[in-house]
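I am writing to request your help with a piece of structural work I have in hand. I set the record out below, with my sincere thanks for your time.
___
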Amino acid sequence: MTEHDIWDSLARELDLWAETGRTATLWWRDDDAVSPSPALDRLRDAATAGGVPVALAVIPAGATPELAEELRGWPGASVLQHGLSHANHETPPAKKAELGSARCPEAVLADLAEGWRLLRPFGPLPVLVPPWNRIAADATSRLPALGYAGLSTFNARPRPCPVPGLVQVNTHVDVIDWRGGGGFAGTEAAIGVLVRHLTARRTGAADPGEATGLLTHHLVHDDPCRRFLDRFLAAASEHPAVGWLDAPALFRSPPFRCPP
């Protein structure tokens, strides 16, 4: 498939949304923010140029006062809590997780409470983004009692039934190839996942109300990744069927109801 064909597949899918008068809602989450950096500046410039809001998953234990000051001048940015310190507590061969099942729920919740305390100067939304997108089910069930209103992980499949009182909005398109060394996943892979999720929403195979989520990690973006993001943001923002949602709007939405 040529690069022209790849981008054309996105345009055709968005055209189908437009033909039915529907809005293809998108949102953008960027993980691992801790301090100002040239990489974060480039992300901000790309988002601002496209008029696109960004939800920044900030690591509380590493977050600096300088980052809080910078974000106060970025009206399109929202802050979500990214665990506590992004520390792995699992033992191989288990997959990495900070909020996994290796520790008791009380220890996990104590970390979250400390992370929330550290993040208060940033004006965060009460939304949790688990490091490595993993959290134990028994900890998830207790998030509303701790004051959380939202949860966001990564799941290219239809979202699971969340805990009552908890709005879950996932990301679906990861632009980084973590298994292949951490570089850009490639235009074909990223657009392919994006189009498949949009198609599933449009046809009812996935929850049509869950905005399609773009997941980035600004600290590891290479030049091909940055060029892709510039082109994607321009293409998506110019299409009349696309509507970018910010995190406050997403996590105000009514909780997803499990099918009977």
Q: What stands out?
A: The chain has nine helices and eleven strands.
